[in-house]
């Protein structure tokens, strides 16, 4: 079957027909190519970039310029996946005008299809404004890493009735504000399931159980390239980190032993030409 670029309507159809949506992060050209080749529906240039690629202790230091630099690399590689740029901390909080301007940069400069931002009811005016400017917005509720300190750390959210009610209300308000999708991070599966039933737009879970319309993971967690810590909701499908270290050890050994470069890696010239030098 001929593959076509994924659109917001395709994601809506998946929700309506009960087909699961797949999403993963990518931050560079070769990774984005592989994700696209694997047929994943959505690539998120997450602000997790800060931790898994740039080595920051958290996502709060990530800047617009860093996000745009990596967005450009990803979108140069992608043919089919829907691409979402993650708005970094303080790129949408200071004013609605600044939020629209920065969301616009993800579309105009980063060539993304949509933006994502974190927060519940408090970000509804910003979501409305960005959507009114013609930019699709993906919401992100539950554990919102940019404001994890305010939430009391990296903890499961919505575990008591009051917290759960607040998540359910926020999700509906964000849908009404025009969000086309909601990411739900680290919330009990029963609440994620209830929100998924309540909403007409797709829900994407990360640590939110099986009943969401789709799932998202951080690429470096999924392929074993980030060893600082692994959250419980992650499944590691391959351990690339140790495999790469072993390959690099082999390279070092071969160079030191004079085995690499071998005959097939060396360029020769004729003896006659060499004599003329
Ligand atoms: O930044 C990110 O990678 C994210 C996902 C965890 C959803 O926001």
Please outline the helices and strands:
Elements: H1 8-17, E1 21-25, H2 29-37, E2 42-45, H3 49-52, H4 64-77, E3 82-86, H5 96-108, E4 114-118, H6 124-132, E5 137-142, H7 161-177, E6 181-185, H8 189-198, E7 203-206, E8 214-217, H9 219-222, H10 240-256, H11 271-275
Parallel strand pairs: 1-2, 1-8, 2-3, 3-4, 4-5, 5-6, 6-7, 7-8
Helix pairs in contact: 2-4, 5-6, 7-8
This protein binds 3-methyl-2-oxobutanoic acid.
CATH architecture type of the largest domain? Alpha-Beta Barrel
Fold-level CATH name of the largest domain: TIM Barrel
Domain count: the total is 2
Q: Provide the low-confidence segments as ranges.
A: none
Residue fraction in strands: 5-15%
Order of adjacent strands in the largest pleated sheet: 1-2-3-4-5-6-7-8
CATH superfamily of the largest domain: Phosphoenolpyruvate-binding domains
Describe this structure in words.
The chain is built from 11 helices and 8 strands. The mean pLDDT is 97. The protein has 2 domains: 232 residues, Phosphoenolpyruvate-binding domains (TIM Barrel), CATH 3.20.20; 32 residues, no CATH class. With 277 residues, the protein is of the alpha/beta class. An 8-stranded parallel barrel has the order 1-2-3-4-5-6-7-8, surrounded by 7 helices. The structure holds 3-methyl-2-oxobutanoic acid (KIV).
Keywords, please?
277 residues, alpha/beta, TIM Barrel, 8-stranded parallel β-barrel, 11 helices, binds 3-methyl-2-oxobutanoic acid
């Amino acid at each position: 079957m001929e593959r076509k670029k994924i659109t917001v309507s395709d994601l809506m159809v998946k929700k309506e027909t009960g087909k699961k949506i797949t999403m993963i992060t990518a931050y560079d050209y070769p990774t984005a190519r592989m994700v696209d080749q694997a047929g994943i529906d959505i690539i998120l240039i997450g602000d997790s970039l800060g931790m898994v690629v740039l080595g920051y202790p958290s996502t709060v230091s990530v800047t617009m310029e860093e996000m745009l630099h990596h967005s450009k690399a990803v979108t140069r590689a992608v043919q089919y996946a829907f691409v979402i740029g993650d708005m970094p901390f303080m790129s949408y909080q200071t004013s609605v005008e600044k939020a629209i301007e920065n969301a616009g940069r993800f579309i105009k400069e980063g060539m993304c299809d949509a933006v994502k931002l974190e927060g519940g009811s408090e970000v509804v005016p910003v979501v409305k404004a960005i959507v009114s400017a013609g930019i699709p917005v993906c919401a992100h509720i539950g554990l919102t890493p940019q404001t994890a300190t305010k939430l009391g750390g990296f903890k499961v959210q919505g575990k008591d009735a009051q917290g759960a009610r607040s998540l359910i209300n926020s999700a509906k308000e964000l849908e009404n504000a025009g969000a086309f999708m909601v990411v739900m991070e680290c919330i009990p599966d029963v609440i994620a399931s209830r929100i998924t039933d309540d909403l007409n737009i797709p829900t994407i879970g990360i640590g939110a159980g099986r009943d969401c319309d789709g799932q998202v993971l951080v690429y470096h967690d999924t392929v074993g390239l980030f060893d600082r810590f692994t959250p419980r909701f992650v499944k590691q499908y391959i351990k690339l980190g140790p495999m790469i270290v072993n390959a690099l050890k082999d390279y070092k050994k071969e160079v030191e032993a004079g085995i690499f470069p071998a005959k097939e890696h060396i360029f020769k010239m004729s003896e006659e030409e060499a004599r003329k030098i």
